[in-house]
Amino acid sequence: MERVEFRADNDNKRSIAAMHSIGCKTEGILRSNGFKPNGERRDSIVLSILKAEWENEVKNNLFEKLLSLQ
């Protein structure tokens, strides 16, 4: 894998914070690219982790977070 991409509704601050907390980097916003359950249009935020980021920092940080839950 060279890259893993994550997307969420741009209004979903809890999911965005969770993705940032594991090391995802924000790439941008896709404007009006989908629908909310109520039929309104939604903007999606795109985040990613690159292979080098995973190997150099994200993997260890995530492992430490998991250990702290025990």
Would you kindly provide a written description of the structure presented here, covering whatever features stand out?
There is one protein chain. The protein has one domain: 3-Layer(aba) Sandwich (Aminopeptidase), CATH 3.40.630.30. By secondary structure, the chain is α+β, with helices and mostly antiparallel strands. It contains two helices and three strands; from the N terminus they run E-H-E-E-H. The longest helix is centred in the C-terminal third of the chain and has 18 residues, at 51-68. The model has no long low-confidence stretch (mean pLDDT 95). The relative contact order is 0.26.
Keywords:
single chain, 70 residues, alpha+beta, Aminopeptidase, three-stranded antiparallel sheet, 2 helices, 39% helix, 40% strand, elongated
Q: How much is the average pLDDT?
A: 95
Question: Which structural class should the secondary elements be placed in?
Answer: alpha+beta
- Helix-strand string: EHEEH
Uncertain regions spanning at least 5 consecutive residues: none
User: What is the strand tally?
Assistant: 3
CATH topology, which one? Aminopeptidase
Task: State the gist of this model.
Helix content is 39%, strand content 40%. With 70 residues, it is of the alpha+beta class. A three-stranded antiparallel β-sheet has the order 1-3-2.
Topology, pairings included?
Blueprint: E1 3-9, H1 13-21, E2 25-35, E3 41-50, H2 51-68
Antiparallel strand pairs: 1-3, 2-3
